[in-house]
Specification:
The structure holds two protein chains of two kinds. Chain A is of the alpha/beta class. Chain A contains eleven helices and 18 strands. Classes of the chains: A alpha/beta, B mainly alpha.
Amino acid sequence: MPAYDETEVLVIGAGMGGGAISKRLSDAHISVVCLEQGDWIHSAQHPHYHAEWEIEKRRSWSFDPNVRKGIEDYPVTGAVTPYMYNAVGGSTVHYAGHWPRNRPADFRKGTEHGLEGTIDWPVSYEDLSPFYDINDTEMGISGVPGDSAYPPRPGLTRLPVIAPGKLGRKAARGFDSLDWHWWPSDNAIATSPVNGRLPCNGCGNCLSGCPRGSLGTTAVTYWPTAVRNGVDLRTHARVERINAADGRVTGATYVDVRTGVRREVRARIVVLCANGIGTPRLMLMSAQAGHPNGLSNSNGMVGTHLMHHSWAFVDCWFDEPIEGFKGAFGMPLYCQEFYETDVRRGFVNGLTMLVGRSYGSAYTAMGTHTGLMAPWGAEHREFFVKHFARHMTIHMQGEDLAVRSNRVTLDHGTLDSSGLPAAHVEYAVPDNDRRLAAFGIDRIVEAAEAMGAIETHHTGVMSPPPGWHLMGTCRMGNGPGDSVTNKYNQTWELPNLLIADGSSLATGGAVNPTSTIGAVAVRCAEYLKRRGREVATQRTTPSNQDAPGF
Amino acid sequence: MLEPDAGHATLGGFDPPISLSRQESALLAAVADLLVPEGAGFPAPSAVGVVDFIARYVTPRDRPVMHYPFAAEDEFKRSLAGLGRAFLDADPSRRVELLRRLEVEEAAFFAQVRDLVYYGYYSRPAVIQAIRDHVEAGRDYHGPPQPYGYDATLEGWDDIALPSGRGRYTATEDVRRASPMP
């Protein structure tokens, strides 16, 4: 048995990016090995049938790998609550499934303001739009076409929209009374049967994953087909180094997290899809002869310009039942009244208000999203009855600036279960984003009052914000001076090493990033389908202008 | 060879749970019943198995303390013993006083107990039934999200008109330099 395996394309990470790329390449009969450090998640591992489902949100189904502490999880230190999942499906295994797109102006923020390290994307909304559509079809998106806050999408089809319930209907009427924008959300939630996935029955616990397969994780969308196509998906396979020689990458060495056994995979092309923290970590961990600062990092850009979205939670309570425990979590609706830049507000960029549901009765007692905990003793019951199922959380999701000093580095003082260094995060909320978030909180309180809320409680501007959106750390750009890859995802110094995940995003918009990550990945796969031969043989990475293009 | 789920918290807590002495169980029951008093159709925590729930979520002494609520058996029992017989012998108002003092003097332990009581109490079927029976907003609540879900009782958009045309966006070719820059 040789000491290594060979494939045409090696994909690292089986989440949104890795799933989309593996499936699309294997559809075209290109051989793919995918290395994933986590395992498949079995439906019996979800907590939805257990009486203890709420406490398990803080244990086995925490978003945070530092809390879960599985052998497949690597530690993340520093100013961050890192929200990610290491498994087939990646962080789509438990997410809301909320599925907005970036808007056209989001791709032109360098032109619009260029603050801090902000650049224009090297692609436009129009360039990416067809790939959004392909990815949407693969993932199975519910919603209602027709939101005029976005360019028209002729021919767009959607599964039936998730039901808003009393909560969503109340929020919509409140926005209507202010004449503010709102629209039912697109969600990666199957509301009718799709490819063997059971339709959503509105249980509301999407954030602990979905035992029915209704939630659009790549484990139930892309991966079944990719495996049928012959993709060699190896689980428990933690990459410790991407190998390089003579100005190109040759593959990667991984370690089985259960046994510690090492194995090498050689490939003509390597695509890195390990998320906005995992990808720069691996690029930096792969420092070797000829690449002393990590791979493709002569410009020092790897790991920089980390974005999370600025964030605040606003809890709102009403004097009548709104039953927030019911219904697909996703997001029933969103408001983008304040999405685009208006400098009269005192900041650039904007925000989305995400109208969110509640969880169960323990969540009410434990203080919902903002720590308003039920008192113990004689006042407990009255508090509970006044607050349970009369609650909604409105999320203030603001665009955050791409700042060079907000970054991912390595922490050699903290190791994962294979002895590899932890990722370390530095993140400070820029003043612009503080002003934006404070404005957003005020507008949400205004909206809550219009909806009839009798009590609100908020977190203030969260610093650091929740780290469930990991973006920008190996961004695509316009040249080696401003980015890590060209517009075709090729790293500037190693033409056959490509990156396609949250780290590719040059800006984050004020929207959840998964649909954009998927679109970027599908586009990358399509490019490799058409131009893989050139990519596999190029000695230098072409500029955006000189690349052969589609 | 490590098991694939090595490091993970077990759903439902530890099996077997830690064993509690008669006095430890009585203390936890008494504390729980003060934290969430019975009444208005709701049972007392001690009557619905909250003490058993707690015993499953305190980490046994032969296991590493890795997961929420980070309660180690020996430490937990030591703090509990600090309340002691005096707590059990006290009248209700004195018990409240002692618990208030515990909340200040042993804040971490108090928070562990309070969290476990809240999570435990609101996970019990009898409490879910009380919510259905006695809380107007919770008449359809069934605790664990599956297998039923809530589609059967969930309202649609129906009569609410979608606000077509209310949203606006800047087209790619119309993006200009923001001015004056804030």
